[in-house]
Amino acid sequence: MTIPNLLTSLRLALTPVAAVLAYSSGGVGRAFALGIFLFAMATDVVDGIIAKLPGQSSRLGLYLDPVTDKIIVLTMFFVLADLELLPLWMAFLMLARELLVDGLRSAAATSGQVVGSNVMGKTKGVLQTVCIGLGLALRTLAVDPASAWVWVTACAGLTLLVVWIFAAIFVWQNRALIRQAG
Length: 182
Fold this sequence. Notes:
Layout: H1 3-22, H2 27-50, H3 59-82, H4 88-110, H5 119-140, H6 145-173, H7 175-181
Helix pairs in contact: 1-2, 1-3, 2-5, 3-4, 3-5, 4-6, 5-6
């Protein structure tokens, strides 16, 4: 197994740990949730860098890395919604966006075409990480729940606006694939 695949597997394994710790009633557990989440997201950056080295890229990694990213991000958005730090519908809109883009990628794959990531996808990942990190940090710092809700909801709203604009651009750029798949 390549180093990037090991890091991706570690990120996947840390997802339920971060999610469970986010529900901690004490500051220490919440701080660990934040730290584990940020560490997991840092492994995404590191495995991306290492995967560009000779002999470190794999077919498994091409599939596992983006799926793992979606699992941790969507899990944490639903955790934040369950903790009443953002409305549940926002977490569902994040999920819908991921399904739309991945559906288009899957359709392209059936015709042998690979639609890779780009700067919009990287920006989306950063925005989502910041939003989740903010929610976990505010919870760790025991910020007033009403204030935390406002900040996290505003951040999630901005993130949703940007990622849906990016999704629309992605669909437009790949409209020929949609026509071919139809």
